[in-house]
Request: fold
Amino acid sequence: MKKNLLLTKPNLFFVLFLLFMPVVLFGQQNYSNFMNASQVLGQPDFATINDTYNQSSLLGATYSAVSSKGVLAVALQQGCGVFIWNSFPTTNGAPADVVIGNTNFTTITDGTSESIMSTSDGVAFSPDGNRLIVSDAGNNRVLIWNSIPTTNGQEADVVIGQPIFTSSAEGTGRRSLNRPTGLFVTTDGRLIVTDHNNNRVLIWNAIPYENNIPADVVIGQNDFNSSGSGTGLNQLNGPYGVWVAPDGKLVVSDHFNHRVLVYNTIPETNGASADVVVGETSTARTRINRLRNPSGVSLSPDGKLFISDWGNHRVLIFNEIPTTNGANADMVLGQPDFTARTQFNPAGSVDARNMNYPYNVANDINGRLFLSGRYMHRLMIFGDAPTEETDVAITISGVTESVCEGGQVSFTVTLTNHGEIEATGIIATAALPHSFNYEYHEADAGTYNHLSGYWNVKAMAPGESKSLTIIGNVPAASPGNLTAYANLIALNQLDYNYSNNSDNTSFEISIGDVPQGGNLNGPTEVFVNQTVTYSLEGVENAVDYIWDIKGAASVSGSGNSRDVTFGTSPVTIKVFAVSESCTGNVFVLSGFNITEDSTPPVPNIVELPDINSECSVFELTAPTATDDYAGTITGTHDAELPITAQGTKVITWTYDDGHGNTSTQQQNVVIEDVTAPVPDVAELPDITAECMVTELTAPTATDNCAGTITGTHNAELPITAQGTTVITWTYDDGHGNTSTQQQNVVIEDVTAPVPDVAELPDITAECMVTELTAPTATDNCAGTITGTHDAELPITAQGTKVITWTYDDGNGNISTQQQNVVIEDVTAPVPDVTELPDITAECMVTELTAPTATDNCAGTIVGTHDAELPITAQGTTVITWTYDDGHGNTSTQQQNVVIEDVTAPDISQCPENIVAVANTAGCSAIVYWNEPDAIDNCTDNLTVSRSHVPGDIFPLGDTEVVYTFTDQAGNKATCSFMVTVVSDLQISPEKEMVLCYGNPSGSISLTISGGNGSYSFNWNDGEWDESEWTGLFSGTYQVEVTDGYGCLKNSSFAISEPLPINTDVQLEGNVLKALNINADGYRWFNCNFPEIPVANSEEIEFVALQYGEYAVEITVGNCTAVSDCISYFSTFAGEQIVGSMQLIPNPSNGVATLSTDSSREIISIQIYSQSGSLVREYRGLSESLVEIDISDQSGGVYIIEVLYSDDREVIKMIIR
Reply:
């Protein structure tokens, strides 16, 4: 039976449940577009690419991982192993400490055993950093070391994906793999593996400790036996990288679908669908929101998402994990912008900021980015290490070590800052094993997300500790052991002691009866030094009890009860009930009220009498109390003297015995003023004025407390109302006592207004007076008085009108004054236009428009004339206009009427332009038309002249015909139109363009219509004289055609040819590639023996298996062209044996049979893509016929290399 089992679910305790939210840590590292890396491993500097294998190189580096213990591991795809640094290196090109998968740092050993690997693609650590996991992709397996290797070639402890360490078969199902790549271990211990060639992701609910343990969940397939690819949200196509976000989301790079999938939670069932797509399914693009064959993914502790965009030679950074499809990235590394995809941008030369096919990304405790690339042979580190140092440790305690199905489990994680400065940006992870059910947690700092296990503590002072307790239960489970982990994953400072950055604990799952029920009995109200008995009663199946009591002065007892002696510290009592084999529920009692047993002083008078006064109290008589120890105690008060505030003031007397015991007593001080002020004058005199009173002199009164009181009145000043106004004076002593006194204010106005002008002047006008300017008078009270009149406005009557002005001061006093208004009109009307304009007409004037004049009184006056209408005489007639205002005043004005005909005749039916086809010799034509007519405004007698008459002969081209009409006044009008004679000769060509560049195969054939049917031809000034011309090169050809009327037609025609065929050839290794990708056919041949056919020579690429000079004949349509000869010198070591192998069928769908030389021992068969990537490898072959299956690859050309014990052979495989 296990002991020391602490803290599970409290029955008597209030629990705060988690508000689920992602952990976000700001400011660990600042990234920017196209930034430089800060450090490089695998190369001595950023400008070098060394592809040799040694202790300081990273040959084909694919994946990297940094453990919580500060150990760095890098997987080598070409180096067939994993390099390990025991502590993180701080200089460029630092050598590794240990290699696994190979026996040493000088020899690459490719094999299948506990210590030898083939093509390691992925690497990961357990959360506590104690176990190492490697995906041995070439052997279709995952290897596990139960401790971090310390010697070269150290053997693995566990294999999954294969039944034994010496097998490497690929397959599906729960126990098989086909090129595993990416690895990730979750906080709750789940192992996640991307099974690349099976197009799936496998999940083990715990890191296996035994060989060939089956997976628990599959993603990308609906079952464990399927392996097809697809583009649906529940499908994958060659997954590579995998990571779990701070909020528990699963992120997978879907390599051949050009996307990254986000699952909002780690799937628990097979075939789950993703929730978010980053990139665009099945479409490779180079944009801010698109991807091209992404490989690795990672998330920094502060929530940044990093994607190694393999085919775009860049890394995309998202400041937070996207929640919608097609989200834009925030930053890019490796390229200057989001549209560039140059290898080693910009110039193809390696430096600190560019990259070439980046494979994987990872992050360390300080948020730095680790980027590896198989073709770069290096590990790039972006971001800076902190300069401040500290030491943050994490431990696990209070563990429920032995549990049964249905029982509760618990453990406590404690973070402690052992450094000398404040530690900031702290994030730890901790979680129950995945097979357990989470119930709740208790954290004394920060926020905890149980889905991801992230505990964000933010900051801790030197020496400070923070704790997190996680409680859960055990569902149906098999007996055995499960591990829970806790580790530090984020810190803003440099941790100089990685050894204490992680911890783990093991839970033993047993079979047995779980304790049930029960109550924890005992009081919570206790005294200092008091001993109280607490007991756990009524628990079924309990055979023992484990007590955990914190804060007590002492504890004694056994079994289900304990005697607890209390001190002054807070106390928490926790107890587990234990059955024969496991723990049950936990009981918690806390929140004790701990007090001391002591007696304060007792007042001698039970109730103190009130102290009374009208105005103030200047001193107090202290009461007393009696204490058990001190005797008589004189009270002290809290009042400020003197007390003057009216009302009741409660003062507190305190009796203190000097030993920490006090008692208090209250007493009332009552200040109440009840005497009102007395006026100093018994009766106030009247105040008199004619107009107003603007201020008052305040009287006074005398008060018993306040002394002299100045009265306040209720009047509104100034007082202007005529008559008597009674005002009231009030004397207020401020204590609620008032007295009043009245006084009369008498206003009486008896003086009338006096006019300001003694005699008003006459008002004169010619026509009328519409308004009057009022005179004024001055009043003693009202001031200026404006007069009012008795007139009716306007005044228009000619002569004198007398008006009366009245001045009224509003108080009954009035005065009057008279004034004369004189109207007399003496002004004649004035014409509105100084000089009237002439009236003109061509033939006659039948009516006249009357002009106007303006009169000062009558306004507008319409003139009258002396003429006889109509006026028809040609020339000038003078008429006189007269204006009369009706008051005897007149004026006159003259105007000229001018008759003059200036309008030309109006022509009608002028013919439109005429186009006639040549119909007679000389290429001319006889033309007819209807002649025009004209009318005049004044006369019918017109004269006409013409340049041509209908029926005239017109030459080829344009001829103008003109008609002129003249009236009796000499006004002329003309009509003109064009007669155009044309030939209807027409040329219709048929052309054949040059078929191939530089070939005289063009032709032109002419069909002629129109004219009189007899034609002659003249090409290019006499070069040819027929209607058809063949055998033409590209160019422009001109022709002149003449008919029997002598009419001529010119035209020109262009003959074009296609562009020359691109015959450029690129040589990479022993592969020659035509750069013309749009050709219809290719034929490669040896320039030295062009008549001898070359095997497999009809593709865009050609693999040269022996040295020589080669060229390609390229066919586009019916045209061919031959490239320059390219020299190739073979670098193969042994004699080249070409043609000893056969691949049937070829081309194929990716599945074919390879026939090899049966007399030789086959070491390996390796298949490479055009980019040089190893896509498949076969080893341990004993038969000469080998089935090749790369049907999971895309269409194209692949190279099969067979390595014999004494030589090698190469053949090309084509997938349609």
In short: The chain has a mean pLDDT of 87. The CA atoms of residues 443 and 468 lie 4 Å apart. The first strand starts at residue 39 and ends at 41. DSSP finds no helices and 101 strands in the chain.
